[in-house]
Known about the structure:
Bound molecules: uridine-5'-diphosphate-glucuronic acid
Mean pLDDT: 96
Structural class: alpha/beta
CATH topology of the largest domain: Rossmann fold
Helix content: 40-55%
Amino acid sequence: xxxxxxxxxxxxxxxxxxxxxxxxxxxxxxxxxxxxxxxxxxxxxxxxxxxxxxxxxxxxxxxxxxxxxxxxxxxxxxxxxxxxxxxxxxxxxxxxxxxxxxxxxxxxxxxxxxxxxxxxxxxxxxxxxxxxxxxxxxxxxxxxxxxxxxxxxxxxxxxxxxxxxxxxxxxxxxxxxxxxxxxxxxxxxxxxxxxxxxxxxxxxxxxxxxxxxxxxxxxxxxxxxxxxxxxxxxxxxxxxxxxxxxxxxxxxxxxxxxxxxxxxxxxxxxxxxxxxxxxxxxxxxxxxxxxxxxxxxxxxxxxxxxxxxxxxxxxxxxxxxxxxxxxxxxxxxxxxxxxxxxxxxxxxxxxxxxxxxxxxxxxxxxxxxxxxxxxxxxxxxxxxxxxxxxxxxxxxxxxxxxxxxxxxxxxxxxxxxxxxxxxxxxxxxxxx
Length: 432
Ligand code: UGA
């Protein structure tokens, strides 16, 4: 099939490349010429394991094309995916839909034959209705249909998530479009993915509801972790004990330093905004947002306690600064609150991240990036494991750190407390 992906951000690029790998002809379009030029040379703008090989392979095979020409790309394709960003509007809860609407306007001015237009961007309920209205201003209703097909990819696992999704959600009342999209996804359905056909509005809500529910699970276990610390219970035991109940499920019950990233914080806020506009209170999700916002304060209190309230001039190392492992994404990473706070209190901070130095910390005088784990840790009074990268799991801190006495605050519970005790390391985990 002939597809066009508008927007080569996370969702657009990964889905476009994976659709090409399934044998479709895909054009990935972006306004950013620099990005498109780089993609043509297989230089990938994001860190995503396996993506570069897949881009190279499909670009070489001619199934995958990159372009800045939206008009031509739309005209050549039957199925058009809108995959542009929908960030939170500044200081508000509302999602900024300007990029979705401007893509719809451009498509509407350039339609030459029947098109299936699919919202893959995460958009509030009824955005499909609004896109339909925009399209109708310039195009006859018989020339297009608007479908919602939300994406459930996780950064760092995006290719696997695309190829082996739990479900594919298609929101449309158009039977022809539904049939065509079922065919497009057939290779994944035949591998076990559930194909869920719903109304367009339900599909839009499913995406927000899923992210808000996962954020709720994480926040639930994070709050329990606080209680576990007080009662000397290991939160990992609680996660396993709860999670083995099939009604609950064990995933997304890992306590940590607050959920972050480009999706959960943004989408929990946006669903609350949608509900407020309908005069419905989503009190559980509001509480989740609040609890998550306050989490770094709770972890910082523990840092103070570990350092006996003496932060000034202490050498603190952060291992990993991205919001989770296997990504270079810093958006809403918990350490964006912690590092500036500790820096203000006079700590000397060194950090190491497998994806390199971060522009977010360049302005801080006493926050230094180090190229190796050893350089970041050797003078440390306190090592904070902020992100759960595999390469941190087997390091021998006793060998690396030159100080006689140092502490480890493992915010991801990647180390065994027993092993740490055997090595005489002052060890603190989350919820244990
Ligand atoms: C999330 C969803 O998992 C995807 O299904 C969805 O498609 C995506 O948002 C999106 O809306 O585009 P992502 O933001 O890539 O994916 O990351 P997750 O793996 O979900 O992690 C989100 C945050 O929760 C991270 O900060 C992570 O460290 C944290 N987390 C996750 C925990 O603290 N504990 C857990 O058990 C799981």
